[in-house]
Design brief:
The structure holds two protein chains of two kinds. Chain A contains eight helices and eight strands. By secondary structure, chain A is an alpha/beta fold. The chains are: A alpha/beta, B alpha/beta.
Chain lengths: 204, 352
C-alpha cells in the first residue's frame, strides 16, 4: 500500500506555488507527467480545480490513486489522443519538458487540448550549470539530479532557447516566472535563475 | 417473458448499519455466485476470484459486504434455460428468452432491493462483468458510487462478435443440440460446447503466454504423424474443453455470448458514447491489460474517453501483464495494488 501525504510537500516545490498562483478557482487542468499527483492534489485542495493527470509509471499511478486524484496511465510520447480539443483551461507540464522526446509536437498537443499551457523546466543556462560545463563536467544539482549516463533529460534548454522556440512555433508567452530555490529572479534570469515557469497560448 | 425467476447468490462480510459498504461482483461468461472461499463440505471448491476477494484481500470482506450472484440465464443455480418451466414442467430450453446486460443489471437491482441496499459502494466486474458494472452507472446512476470496469469494452468489435459466432455455431451445429431442447433427449451437445470453449480459451490467452507455457512441447515426447494429440497445447485445450463441457450448459453459453454481442450503450446515439455517459454519476476505475487482445487497452480507453468528455471522476490503469484477457483473474502485483489502493479509499468513504 502506498501511503503518501504529499500535498504538504507541494509548497516545497517552488514551481508548484508559482503554477498555483496562475490557476483560478474551479479551473479545469490536465497535468502531463503528473508524478505522484501532489500538484493536482494541491490544486484540488487550494483551487478546487477539476483535474486529471497523465502518468506512465506504475508506482506514480498508485500514488495518484492514494492521493485521490484522477490519473490516466498513458505515455505522453504517444500523444494526447484521449483528450478532446479545447477541453481544458490549462494543460501543465511540470519538470517534464526536458525529458520528452517529441517535445515540439507535445507542446502543440498541449495547445490543442488546453486553452493555455504551463511548463516548468530546469534552466540549463543557470550560472552554476555553465560553470560546471566550463570546468569540464555535466552539471549535477538539485534541479538536475542525474549523471550523464542515467539522465532521462534528453532536451535540456535555456530560457533563451525556450523563448526562441516559442517565437518560431507560433506560441505566445503570456507570463514567465524565474526562480532559484524559492526566490524569484528578476535580474539576468537566464544566468541567475535555476528554474523557469512559463504560461503560454497559441500565437498568431 | 419469464413468469418468475430465482437468483442464487452468496455474501461475504457484514453489511454496516447504514448499508453503505456493499459491493456487487458481476461475473463474466463462465463465472457464478461462488466468488470467494470454499465450503465446509467441499474444501476444494474455491471461489473463482479468491485471490481478489476475502479477508485482508483487495476486495476486503473485513471491510465490505460483498455479494456474488449467478446471473439470470446462468447454469449454476439461478433460473436459466436448463431450469424447469413451471407452466410446462419441462426445461425452458430454446424457449428461454434472450437476456441482455440491461436485464441482468435490472435483476441485480431487484436483488439489492431485497437485501435492503439502496446504493452500492462499488460494482465490480471483469470482461462481461465490466460491461454490467458500466451499465449500472447508466441504468441506476444514483445506486452506485464506484464502478470498476476491468478488461472490458463499451461494445464488441466485429472480430469479437465473430469469435462468439464461431463458438455458437459449434454448439448450434452439434447433432446433439436438438434446437436447444437437448434435455428432453437426455444428451448434451458436448462436442459443440468443448469446441466453443477451446476457441474461447485461445482468445483469452496471449501468444506469449501460450509460448511460455507450452511452446512446441510434445504431449507424448514424440511426433506420431497422425491426428491424435501430439502437442502439449492440444492436450491442454482439449482438457479445458472437456472440463467445461462437463458442467456448463450449452444454452447458457449461447445466451451469455449473445448478451456480449448485443451490449452497446451507444446504440441509440449513433455510436456516440459522450451523451450516454452524461447521465452517469459514479466514479470510475478502468483497468486494462497490455497483452489482452480480446478486450484490448484500446477498447478500455474507449470507456475512458466519454468519461473525460463528461468530466467524470475516472482513473485508468494499464497493467503490463503476460496473461492476455485472463489477466483480470491473475495475481499481477501492480493490478492487486491498484485495486487495494483504490478500494482502501472506497472503504474509508463508507467509514470502514
Amino acid at each position: 500500500m502506498i501511503k503518501n501525504d504529499t500535498a504538504r510537500f507541494a509548497v516545497a516545490r517552488p514551481d508548484f506555488a508559482a503554477i498555483a498562483a496562475w490557476i483560478p478557482n474551479g479551473a479545469t487542468v490536465l497535468d502531463l507527467g503528473c508524478g505522484d499527483g501532489s500538484l493536482l492534489r494541491y490544486l484540488k485542495e487550494t483551487r478546487a480545480v477539476r483535474g486529471y493527470g497523465v502518468e506512465i509509471s506504475d508506482l506514480n499511478v498508485l500514488s495518484c490513486i492514494a492521493n485521490g486524484v484522477n490519473v490516466i496511465q498513458n505515455d505522453l510520447e504517444s500523444g494526447l489522443a484521449d483528450f478532446e480539443s479545447n477541453s481544458f483551461d490549462y494543460v501543465m507540464l511540470s519538470q517534464t519538458l526536458q525529458a520528452t522526446r517529441h517535445t515540439e509536437p507535445l507542446i502543440q498537443e498541449m495547445l490543442r487540448v488546453g486553452r493555455e499551457g504551463i511548463v516548468s523546466f530546469p534552466n540549463f543556462g543557470y550560472w552554476k550549470n555553465r560553470v560546471n560545463v566550463l570546468l569540464g563536467n555535466m552539471p549535477v544539482s538539485r534541479e538536475l539530479p542525474y549523471q550523464w549516463y542515467d539522465t532521462p533529460n534528453v532536451h535540456l534548454c535555456t530560457l533563451n532557447d525556450f523563448e526562441e522556440f516559442c517565437r518560431d512555433h507560433h506560441v505566445a508567452v503570456l507570463e514567465r516566472r524565474v526562480m532559484t530555490g524559492e526566490h524569484e529572479v528578476k535580474v539576468l534570469p537566464n544566468l541567475l535563475g535555476s528554474t523557469a515557469v512559463y504560461r503560454f497560448q497559441r500565437g498568431i | 417473458m419469464l413468469p418468475s425467476y430465482e437468483l442464487v447468490y452468496e455474501t461475504y462480510g457484514t453489511l454496516n448499519a447504514d448499508k453503505s459498504n456493499a459491493i456487487l461482483i458481476c461475473h463474466a461468461l463462465s463465472g457464478h455466485h461462488h466468488v470467494a472461499g470454499y465450503y465446509a463440505d467441499d474444501l476444494k471448491n474455491i471461489g473463482w476470484w479468491n485471490n481478489m476477494v476475502g479477508p485482508g484481500k483487495p476486495i476486503d470482506t473485513d471491510r465490505f459486504f460483498v455479494i456474488g450472484l449467478n446471473n439470470l440465464g446462468g447454469c449454476h443455480g439461478s433460473t436459466g434455460p436448463s431450469s424447469l418451466n413451471p407452466e410446462t414442467g419441462q426445461p425452458y430450453g430454446a424457449s428461454f428468452p434472450v437476456i441482455t446486460v440491461e436485464d441482468w443489471v435490472a435483476s441485480q437491482a431487484r436483488l439489492a432491493d431485497r437485501l435492503g441496499i439502496h446504493q452500492f459502494a462499488a460494482v465490480i466486474g471483469g470482461s462481461l462483468g465490466g460491461m454490467q458494472a458500466l451499465q449500472w452507472s447508466l441504468s441506476y446512476p444514483d445506486r452506485v458510487r464506484h464502478v470498476f470496469a476491468i478488461a472490458a469494452a463499451p461494445r464488441l468489435t466485429a472480430q469479437n462478435i465473430a469469435f462468439n459466432d464461431v463458438a455458437r455455431n459449434a454448439i448450434l451445429t452439434d447433432p446433439d443440440f436438438h434446437g436447444g431442447n437437448y434435455y428432453q433427449h437426455n444428451v448434451v451437445p458436448t462436442r459443440g460446447l468443448r469446441l466453443a470453449r477451446m476457441l474461447g480459451h485461445i482468445t483469452y490467452l496471449s501468444d506469449n503466454a501460450m509460448a511460455d507455457k507450452f511452446g512446441r512441447d510434445l504431449h507424448t515426447g514424440q511426433l506420431n504423424y497422425g491426428y491424435e494429440i501430439e502437442f502439449a497445447i492440444e492436450s491442454y485445450l482439449r482438457y479445458q474443453g472437456d472440463k467445461f463441457a462437463s458442467y456448463f450448459d450449452a444454452n447458457t453459453y449461447l445466451l451469455m455470448t449473445k448478451a456480449l454481442d448485443y451490449f452497446d450503450p451507444a446504440q441509440d446515439s449513433g455510436g456516440d458514447l459522450n451523451p450516454v455517459f452524461a447521465r452517469a454519476k459514479a466514479s470510475f476505475l478502468v483497468i486494462s491489460f497490455s497483452t489482452d487482445w480480446r478486450f484490448s487497452p484500446q477498447r478500455s480507453r474507449e470507456i475512458v474517453r466519454p468519461l473525460l468528455h463528461n468530466r467524470r471522476t475516472v482513473s485508468y490503469a494499464e497493467i503490463t501483464s503476460t496473461h492476455g484477457h485472463d489477466s483480470f483473474l491473475m495475481q499481477d502485483p501492480y493490478y492487486l495494488d491498484v485495486m487495494r489502493t483504490y478500494l482502501d479509499k472506497v472503504a474509508r468513504e463508507c467509514g470502514q
